[in-house]
From TrEMBL:
The keyword Nuclease is assigned to this record: no
Taxonomic placement: Bacteria, Bacillati, Bacillota, Bacilli, Lactobacillales
PROSITE patterns (alphabetical): RIBORED_LARGE
NCBIfam families (alphabetical): NrdE_NrdA, RNR_1b_NrdE
Organism, as annotated: Ligilactobacillus faecis
Signal peptide limits: none
Name this polypeptide is given: Ribonucleoside-diphosphate reductase
GO MF annotation list: ribonucleoside-diphosphate reductase activity, thioredoxin disulfide as acceptor
Catalytic activity: a 2'-deoxyribonucleoside 5'-diphosphate + [thioredoxin]-disulfide + H2O = a ribonucleoside 5'-diphosphate + [thioredoxin]-dithiol
Keyword Lipid metabolism among UniProt keywords: no
E.C. designation(s): 1.17.4.1
Entry function: Provides the precursors necessary for DNA synthesis. Catalyzes the biosynthesis of deoxyribonucleotides from the corresponding ribonucleotides.
Family the entry assigns: Belongs to the ribonucleoside diphosphate reductase large chain family.
Length: 723
């Protein structure tokens, strides 16, 4: 039997898995999921996996038939590959749930070209990842194999999926592009969107620099069309460039809230928008300076400034002007075209759209820049709002050549599995191994079709190591999400990630005698970055959390001082190191909870194409952990914001923070609802966004709403930038 001939009516694993959703005597039938896993392996995997007489024969077949690249294999003696496999088999890896095995084999395992047979199991994929990212270094390959098979480290989906394959997409996850205020840049951005969408990964584009609708062009008043027509062109580009029909191209456009087209920008996503302006598949994000929060809080009018006039006045694109610092001067300047709206009205429009669609994402741009240790300015984010890196503008001439080659961003992501990393025999060594694997991705990324992306990656060597499984770890250790102990644990965990990624980056810089460009202008080089670690102790204080970190090295102020001096002396290889992505199907393969947000259901329901519903039990679910698995939809979102704030203090980039709301809010959940309607209102979202800003949150990703009709609004299954 082959996969093509597999009759789903003659297998039992779907029915067994579905029993998870049917309580028996008031109990969740967790044993039925184990039965489903066993049946899946027996009925699907074993009979449909191609067999080989030896490991050598298998690799010869894969190379001869163009399934694997030969170059990385040839960097090793085959005796070492056999040693690596023996080491991996000793780990005795087993999937823990049906969903984990199902997701791996359907989405990640290499199959024959005709789709008839599996060509690899989990150990095979781990081995190829380890060999590929170690780049011929046997010691590193063994270490990386340990991290992967123990599921302490999970490369981003594009990296894990494509590593070593002959016919593959790029290893990077997503891209950030800026458009400047001229037709050449707009044309180049559309071409870049086509190219990057073809390669794979979501694309973030900021349109904040474009002159507004009605602005003059070459002295002709009212000639400019504004940002919405460009959005339509970009949406069509992403729809057209869809990876041979395998996946819809994905993009997000950002606009500063002080741009005169902001209301039209938001209106383009409304369900009742005119088809001429409506964008259906493009995601929206807003860039929000601190000044907006101040004006909205005081119920003041706000002025929107035309980017063409601002650039002419300041000599740089609109995105690079500090609107908060320059606001009063901009208002007073009669040479800058502007229009006035109510700040509260705009705040309400943002909330209305978030209720209706989950959009827009919110980037608190001043918060991001105040915490930014790198010389330069952060102007935007990516498709999942966790990448925040400095950029510089390009200048393109009429022949579409770069007169000035600026820098844009590609995202090289990976994630720690919190439960498993906390059990590592050497936390620091594990993190260093992960950093070296990610460094291979940034070093070998070759996005030459978009030179500004290429230039940015080569200058920055940036990576984004994050985390998944926070709720699983807390529940396993009987700690309530958002409790003081949970926040204390989160802060210490991310402090450790920060410390060890800094150590690893410093070591790589020392080995290579190379730092990221403009390291000498950074707060790392001056030592100012380390002030908070030299004046505040982030070690756990409660007995419960101290016990969790027992046996794990916690750096003292003296350790931070030593690291500071080492970095001042030898530098850092990576401009950016940490970012927390939203996670997707890969968290199921890791048998853990996604990212650092709470679970949605104790038994999660997934709709699979052609199959129907599949159910996934929360990790470590038992009578003991059940009380610690509150649904995100039943949780005060301030607990989620507090959790992300505890991590954000140590994360140099951003985190994909999703807000989970019910259309009818449970009584007593939010104190400000007392005596008011129980329906979710725009006021609720405004309060939570302001609270997040107050807590130092750099970005808000999605707003997901669970309605009274059991639907979910704003459910985003971003497949490009998730881990």
């Amino acid at each position: 039997m082959s996969l093509k001939d597999l009759d789903t009516n003659n297998v039992t694993y779907y029915d067994l898995n579905n029993r998870l959703n049917i309580p028996l005597n008031g109990q969740i039938q967790l044993d039925q999921d184990q039965a489903a896993l066993k049946a899946f392996l027996e009925q699907n995997v074993v009979p449909n996996t191609m067999r080989f007489a030896s490991l050598k024969e298998r690799f010869e077949y894969l190379l001869e038939n163009n399934y694997l690249e030969a170059d990385f294999i040839q960097k090793y003696e085959f005796s070492f590959i056999e040693k690596l496999y023996a080491h991996l088999k000793e780990a005795d890896f087993h999937f823990k749930t049906f969903m984990a095995a199902y997701k791996f084999y359907t989405q990640y395992a290499l199959k024959t070209d005709d789709g008839q047979y599996y060509l690899e199991n989990f150990i095979d994929r781990v081995a190829v990842n380890a060999l590929y990212f170690a780049d011929g270094d046997e010691t590193l390959a063994l270490k990386l194999a340990d991290e992967l098979i123990s599921q302490r480290y999970q490369p981003a989906t594009p990296s894990f999926l494509n590593a070593g394959r002959s016919r593959r997409g790029e290893l990077v996850s997503c891209f950030l592009l800026q458009v400047t205020d001229d037709m050449n840049s707009i044309g180049r951005a559309i071409n870049s969107a086509l190219q990057l969408s073809r390669i794979g990964g979501g694309v973030g584009i900021t349109l904040s620099n474009l002159r507004s609708a009605g602005a003059p062009i070459k002295g002709i008043k009212g000639a400019a069309s504004g940002v919405v027509p460009v959005m339509k062109l970009l949406e069509d580009s992403f729809s057209y460039s869809n990876q041979l029909g395998q996946r819809q191209g994905a993009g997000v456009v950002y606009l500063n809230v002080f741009h005169p087209d902001i209301i039209d920008f938001l209106a383009s996503k409304k369900e009742n928008a005119d088809e001429k302006i409506r964008v259906k598949t493009l995601s929206l994000g807003v860039i929000v300076p601190d000044k907006f929060y101040e004006l909205a809080k005081n119920d003041q009018a706000m002025y929107l400034f035309d980017p063409y006039d601002v650039e002419r006045k300041y000599g740089k694109p609109f995105s690079y002007v500090d609107i908060t610092a320059e606001y009063d001067a901009l208002v007073a300047d009669e040479t800058i075209a502007k229009k006035k709206i109510s700040a509260r009205l705009l705040e309400e429009e943002i909330s209305k759209l978030q209720q209706e669609s989950g959009y827009p994402y919110v980037i608190n741009i001043d918060t991001a820049n105040k915490a930014n240790p790198i010389a330069g300015k952060i102007i935007m984010s990516n498709l999942c709002s966790e990448i925040l890196q400095v950029q510089t503008p390009s200048k393109i001439n009429d022949t579409q050549d770069y007169e000035v080659l600026g820098t844009d961003v590609s995202c090289n992501l990976g994630s720690t599995n919190i439960v498993n990393l906390m059990a590592s025999p050497d936390f620091g060594s594990s993190v260093e191994t992960m950093v070296r694997a990610l460094t291979f991705v940034t070093d070998n990324s070759n996005i030459d079709v978009v030179p500004s992306i290429q230039a940015g990656n080569k200058a920055a060597h940036s990576i984004g190591l994050g985390a998944m499984g926070l709720h699983a770890f807390l529940a396993k250790n009987q700690i309530h999400y958002g409790s003081p102990e949970a926040l204390e644990f989160t802060s210490t965990y991310f402090m450790l990630l920060n410390y060890w990624t800094l150590k690893a980056s410093n070591q790589i810089a020392k080995e290579r005698s190379e730092t990221f460009v403009d390291f000498d202008k950074s707060a790392y080089a001056s030592g100012a970055y380390f002030d908070k670690y030299l004046t505040h102790d982030y070690a756990p204080t409660s007995e419960k959390v101290k016990a969790l970190f027992a046996g794990i090295f916690i750096p003292t102020k003296a350790d931070w001082e030593e690291l500071k001096e080492a970095i001042k002396r030898d530098g850092l290889y990576h401009q950016n190191r940490l970012a927390v992505a939203p996670n997707g199907s890969i968290s199921y393969i890791n048998d853990t909870t996604a990212s650092i947000h709470p679970i949605i259901n104790k038994i999660e329901e997934r709709q699979e194409r052609k199959i129907g519903k599949i159910y996934y039990p929360a990790p470590y679910l038992s009578n003991e952990t059940l009380p610690y698995y509150a649904s995100a939809y039943d949780m005060d979102m301030r607990k989620v914001i507090d959790t992300y704030a505890a991590a954000q203090e140590h994360v140099d980039q951003g985190m994909s923070l999703t807000l989970f709301m019910r259309s009818s809010i449970p009584e007593g959940l939010y104190d400000w609802k007392a005596g008011r309607t129980d329906k979710m209102t725009t006021r609720d979202l405004s309060i939570l966004r302001n609270y997040a800003h107050h807590k130092g949150i750099k970005s808000i990703y999605y707003v997901r709403t669970f309605t009274d009709t059991q639907d979910e609004v704003g459910v985003n299954e971003c497949e490009s930038c998730v881990i």
